[in-house]
Write a structure and sequence with these properties.
By secondary structure, the chain is of the alpha/beta class. It contains 10 helices and 12 strands. A 6-stranded mixed beta sheet has the order 2-1-3-5-6-4.
């Protein structure tokens, strides 16, 4: 008998992750008796974890702080990983580690599902790995992006991602983040609580807010945005779209991701609703 295949999400902290619920729902939809767990692994522990995997393992999902930390441990990676400077997925193929990034196409797909396909300008709040993926993804809906960063040391990574994806990027200090709220599309990639103070700067009828937070939900800025008549895209949408792409890559199935979205979204909503709220809900990709 063939041993069940294994996959997991790694990060630190990881207790908030909805990825196990999503991936298990996809396995059930596909009739696969596979396992998917969550492991608390930081950058220092990543090499040891990778070295301990056997041939039952098919892939890993990565969240903070591992998307950039994993790069030196990959045998190869796809062009989108190079462009974004981070991998949220590791495919394990015949002893080789292949880096993938499903955050970028997942974000594009989530925006398109909500009718956002072409805007004059976008603002990105944050400067980490998810922000870099957002900048790359936004190249498909606009050519002008302004990023507001809390840590100026992250600006060069954002600029490089923008150059590689043909995006005209301007980087601003975090104390000017309120200026970005008037953009037709705002993508918030910061940790829980970082954007709470921005709610006082919201105008009536703002554009679209894509907040990558998903737990607790809604965030203060998302609630304020919706109350003023703006469109809000839940971070669960990014999580579901990028996870569906991961499932297809890890399983090697030819199934369309569209078939997986409904059961995965339902599983994520149930898991989020039936557990204590967290303060660390980030996309796990």
């Amino acid at each position: 008998m063939t041993a069940p295949r294994r996959a997991a999400v790694l990060g630190s902290p990881i207790g908030h992750s909805l990825s196990p619920a999503l991936h298990r729902a996809a396995y059930a939809e596909l009739g696969l008796d596979w396992s998917y767990e969550a492991y608390d692994v930081d950058a220092a522990g990543l090499p040891g974890f990778l070295g301990g995997l056997d041939d039952r393992w098919v892939g890993l999902s990565l969240t903070m702080p591992l998307k950039a930390a994993v790069l030196p441990h990959l045998d190869t990676s796809t062009p989108v990983v190079e462009t974004a400077g981070g991998a949220n997925t590791v495919l394990l193929r015949e002893g080789r580690r292949v880096g993938e990034n499903t955050d970028v196409p997942g974000l594009v797909a989530a925006l398109a599902a909500h009718g956002v396909t072409d805007v004059s300008e976008a603002a990105v709040l944050g400067g980490g790995a998810t922000a870099r993926s957002a900048v790359v993804a936004l190249g498909s809906v606009t050519r002008r992006v302004v990023a507001y960063v809390r840590d100026p040391r992250r600006a060069p990574g954002l600029q490089l991602a923008a150059e590689r994806s043909g995006v005209d990027l301007a980087v601003r200090r975090w104390d000017r983040a309120m200026d970005g709220l008037s953009a037709p599309l705002v993508v918030a990639t910061t940790p829980s609580g970082a954007t709470d103070h921005l709610t006082v700067g919201l105008a009536d009828r703002p554009g679209t807010l894509f907040d990558v937070q998903y737990d607790p939900w809604p965030t203060p800025i998302a609630a304020g945005w919706a109350a003023r008549g703006g469109q809000v895209i839940d971070g669960l949408e990014l999580l579901v779209h990028q996870a569906a792409l991961q499932v297809v890559l890890m399983t090697g199935t030819a199934v369309a991701t569209q078939r997986l979205l409904t059961p995965m979204r339902a599983a994520g909503e149930t898991a989020r609703r039936t557990r204590p709220p967290s303060t660390a809900g980030r996309p796990t990709g």
